[in-house]
TrEMBL record:
Superkingdom to which the source organism belongs: Eukaryota
UniProt keyword Secreted present: yes
Family: Belongs to the EXORDIUM family.
Protein name per the record: Phi-1-like phosphate-induced protein
Source organism per UniProt: Leersia perrieri
Signal peptide: 1-21
Main location: secreted
Subcellular location: Secreted, Extracellular space, Apoplast
């Protein structure tokens, strides 16, 4: 995998320099060891991880297939072309899970797609609090050590969605279960939660890239889901791998914001693969011929962001 140095602190250029069109490499502040993303000797998820899904609102069969195929691709598509979703997952295994004390020598982790249920009528309404997201997650019969995924459609608003988050992961340590919520931002904030497949709201402006599955909202959901999955398995109960305060941590992917390929910089996702037929940008192949764009993973050993391409 390629590596990209994370942008830890940015030195702003003067307006004169900007008007001249000059671009300098951003200076980096290398934090002390105590401030870096490290293992806090707590739990990670390992062994077999059953994953259940609750679809809240209207999702087409194609949209469901895009997301479900990503979940399957994590450990269940060994014959996918390279670079692959499986290779991305293997990096999580190598950098994080294999170095955690709680794996107890277990065999390689397997992500197993389990039950899928639907709430097409939005029984709790179309404006949800985070507490209601927790309620929805509890509806899915998640087994111990498993993950419940809650997906809300493009017409459902969720507390903090777009303004402060694109998704969230949580847990019930007593029950040994975790959950992830991700919303479809297509109508509400694609520039914030589906970039680089939509025009960014802030920062450097560039033409949006073509989404690999032809649905910017759902392809954006996969990017967010990938980040949440990485955070969930490496820091499920808040005492695993993270950087910064425990209640607002940077995790395996969130420590590398906006980095998808080598050479990434603000406003540019980095060097990516381009489908010769559709012109879509991606960096990972998955099950059933699907292609995805997955975020970089922070490498604690090198203090850099590892990318698939």
């Amino acid at each position: 995998m390629a590596s990209v140095s994370p942008l830890i602190a940015v030195v702003l250029l003067s307006m004169v320099q900007l008007s001249m069109g000059s671009r300098r490499l951003m200076e980096l502040y290398i934090p002390p060891e105590s401030d870096r993303l490290t293992y806090h000797h707590g739990s990670v998820l390992s062994g077999d991880i059953p994953v259940s899904i609750l679809w809240y609102g209207n999702f087409s069969p194609t949209q469901r297939s895009i997301i479900a195929n990503f979940v399957v691709s994590l450990t269940g598509a060994p014959n996918a072309a390279t670079p692959s979703v499986g290779q991305w997952w293997d990096t999580i295994e190598q950098l994080y899970l294999s170095n955690a004390a709680t794996t107890n020598g277990q065999t390689a982790t397997r992500v197993l797609l389990d039950e899928q249920v639907s709430d097409d009528q939005c029984s709790l309404g179309k404006s949800l609090t985070l507490a209601q997201i927790d309620q929805l997650a509890a509806r899915v019969a998640t087994k111990k050590g498993g993950v419940a995924l809650v997906f809300t459609d493009e017409d459902v608003t969720v507390e903090g969605f777009c303004s402060s988050r694109c998704g969230k992961h949580g847990s019930d340590a007593a029950a040994g279960t975790t959950h992830i919520w991700v919303g479809n931002s297509a109508k509400q904030c694609p520039g914030q939660c589906a970039w680089p497949f939509a025009q960014p709201v802030y920062g450097p402006q560039g033409a949006p890239l073509v989404a690999p599955n032809g649905d910017a909202g759902v392809d954006g959901m996969v990017m967010v889901l990938a980040s949440m999955v990485a955070g969930t398995v490496t820091n499920p109960y808040g005492d695993g791998f993270y950087q910064g305060p425990q209640d607002a941590p940077l995790e395996a992917c969130s420590a590398c914001p906006g980095v998808y390929g080598s050479g990434a910089y603000p406003g540019n996702a980095g060097k990516l693969l381009v489908d010769a037929t559709t012109g879509a940008s991606y960096n990972a192949n998955g099950a059933n011929g699907r292609k995805y764009l997955l975020p970089a993973l922070y490498n604690p050993a090198t203090s850099s962001c590892d990318t698939l391409v």
